[in-house]
Every structure is written in structure tokens, then in C-alpha cells.
Amino acid sequence: MFGFEGPEMDAHPTGYHGIAKNPILFNKERYELLTGGTYWLSETPLVAGSKSWDTARARHANWVRLKEHKTGKELRVINLHLDHISEEAKLQQAKMVVAESEQYPADFTQILTGDFNSRFDSRVFNAVRAAGWKESYETLHGQNEAGHTGHEFEGTAYTKAASKGRIDYIWYRGNIKPVQSKIVKDAVKGKFPSDHFFLLTDFESSLTEKP
């Protein structure tokens, strides 16, 4: 597991400022961790705990670059959590992540996951789509409302579901394509492991293998 541990680097240790960890988990038997990092979704991305654009709390993105042992193929995974209050913050934070990822070639495999606190038709995704990112669930099921993912630990009985929509996404670019994507709504003995349903996508390489 790779992530920012906090909150000792948070400039706002009291009040509603606790930092979501945004960890990335990977199988060490399959992948080698080449490098990784954290940057803050603010105008000062290298200042831990920094905030901009009236964001309600400090937000950050974690990323890892992995190499598959068997094939030698590399990929990059980014995990984030956008602000939940400020629309301007969400717009600027999404633009930041897209701009940072542009340093990699268009055919380099990147996967962008997280809670974007935004509906599928939000302006927040304009910059993401314009930069060539595709959303895995949309690719297979169409660009429409897939149903709520946040549920406050109530699952399908969530009383506010009618006014809510999906806010969790798995975006991708480069030489991969999704072959399965679904919203996982499982509970264990009536208990949900998260206040969000999980989003699951299986990818495969989109390159044609040479004989």
C-alpha cells in the first residue's frame, strides 16, 4: 500500500480538516514499484496541507508507477479525492491532475481513480475529457447516470438516493481498454465496508501482441 500517512504534515490539524489517505494498493508479486509521490491539490502543490480556491479541506493526490514483472509493461495509477464543497476547487483540482499527467506520452498507460464529488455531466470533467481521458464504466455502459455510489452506510436503502448520483470514477488513457466495469453493492451480514459502493473495472492491454 502506498499513500500519504498524515496528518502530522497538515497545516490545519484541528477542526474539519482530517486528510483522506487516498491509498493505492497493488500486488507486489505481480508489480514492482518503480516510484511514487504525493502532491497537493492547491496553488502550492509541494506545500503539505495547503489549500486554495475555498476548498473546505486540504486535498491531495497519490500516484505510483508500476512495472509488471511478467511483461515488463509499465503503468501509472493516480488516486485522489476532490473537494466536496467548493465547485471552483473541484474544477481547478481536476485541471491540475490532468495537467500533471500530460508530462507522460499519450500512449503511456495511466489510470485515474477517486471520489470526484461530481456527477457524470459536471463541468469538472470537461478538462479530463478534453485531455483524452475516458471513463471505464461509461465506455462499457454509456455516458449516463449510473446511480448513486455514496450511501452513508445505508446501501440500497439510502433515503437520499433519488437526489444523488455517481461520484466515484475510474478514468484511463493509453494502451488499455476496459473489459468489465460494475458498481459493487455487496454487504457482509448487513454491514457495508464503506460509505460508498465500490467501483470495479478490469482492464486489458489494447495493443495487438506480436506472434
Describe this structure as you would to a colleague.
- The protein has 211 residues and is an alpha+beta fold.
- The chain contains three helices and eight strands.
- It has helices at 87-101, 126-130, 136-141, and strands at residues 31-40, 60-68, 74-81, 110-115, 134-135, 168-173, 176-184, 198-205.
- Strand 2 (60-68) and strand 3 form a beta hairpin.
CATH domain class: Alpha Beta
Q: Could you give the count of β-strands?
A: 8
Largest sheet: 6 strands, mixed
Number of helices: 3
In CATH, the architecture is 4-Layer Sandwich
Number of domains: 1
Order of helices and strands: EEEHEHEHEEE
Beta-strand level of the residues, as a percent range? 25-35%
- Which structural class do you get from the secondary structure elements? alpha+beta
CATH topology, what is it called?
Deoxyribonuclease I, Chain A
- Rounded to an integer in angstroms, the radius of gyration calculated over CA atoms is 17 Å
Estimate the helix proportion, in percent: 10-25%
